């Protein structure tokens, strides 16, 4: 049985608008890598299990708040910039509609559309001011003014997923284990799983995506463990 053409299906593409998926993925990965490296660093210095839990918990809270605030500010600023450019384009369409129509036609001609057809379509679009604004913004700015990501969605997803990621390497200590290697192993497993999940959205092989995240996290943990060991030995810890 032949599959129906993708164009006939209502939703055959993933949502790539960046509302929650990007900050969620970035937050989870950052939470995992940050706390794995933090725990490796203080653990390499020879501190007690209590100190590791305290440090990891502080890193979780501080990092989650920082990620949430950063995502909110970043997305809100980007949306405000888009809004300013949309307002500028609206003024140009109101003041110079003929010139804007020619500009739109020229853009389509540059892509291979015949001049006559491009001009006809640009004139047709011009008759509806709101549609003209949407088309001009998409063509000139490469964004959809009606489909901007929510700063609150970005902030909340980043906060929550950073917290979840940062919690993973702490789990063994919270359940009573005291071995640093076990916490790092659980954190590494979390990195591999997170990378494999990301592959679901990118169509990459799950094992290569998981292995890539594991290697990146291992590099960060190795660097901080070495630094912690050197400082711990120097200070007599």
Automatic annotation (TrEMBL):
Domain of life assignment: Bacteria
Membrane topology, record value: Multi-pass membrane protein
InterPro entries (UniProt xref): Ccc1_fam
Keywords noted in UniProt: Membrane, Transmembrane, Transmembrane helix
Signal peptide, first to last residue: none
Location (main, coarse): membrane
Subcellular location: Endomembrane system
Positions of transmembrane segments: 152-175, 181-202, 214-233
Name of the protein described by the UniProt record: VIT1/CCC1 transporter family protein
Natural source organism: Micromonospora zamorensis
């Amino acid at each position: 049985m032949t599959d129906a053409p993708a164009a006939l299906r209502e939703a055959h593409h993933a949502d790539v608008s960046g509302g929650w998926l990007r900050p969620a993925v970035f937050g989870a990965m950052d939470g995992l890598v940050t706390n794995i490296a933090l725990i490796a660093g203080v653990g390499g210095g020879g501190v007690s299990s209590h100190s590791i839990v305290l440090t990891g918990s502080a890193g979780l809270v501080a990092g989650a708040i920082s990620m949430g605030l950063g995502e909110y500010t970043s997305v809100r600023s980007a949306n405000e910039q888009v809004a300013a450019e949309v307002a500028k384009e609206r003024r140009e369409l109101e003041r110079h509609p003929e010139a804007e129509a020619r500009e739109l036609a020229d853009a389509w001609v540059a892509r291979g559309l015949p001049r006559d057809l491009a001009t006809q379509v640009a004139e047709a679009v011009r008759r509806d001011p709101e549609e003209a604004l949407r088309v001009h913004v998409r063509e000139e700015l490469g964004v959809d003014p009606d489909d901007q990501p929510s700063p609150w969605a970005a902030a909340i997803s980043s906060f929550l997923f950073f917290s979840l990621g940062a919690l993973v390497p702490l789990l063994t200590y919270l359940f009573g284990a005291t071995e640093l290697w076990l916490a790092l192993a659980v954190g590494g497993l979390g990195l591999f799983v997170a990378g494999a999940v990301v592959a679901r959205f990118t169509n990459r092989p799950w094992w290569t995506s998981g292995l890539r995240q594991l290697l990146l996290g291992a590099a960060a943990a190795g660097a901080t463990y070495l630094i912690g060991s050197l400082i711990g030995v120097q200070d007599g810890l």
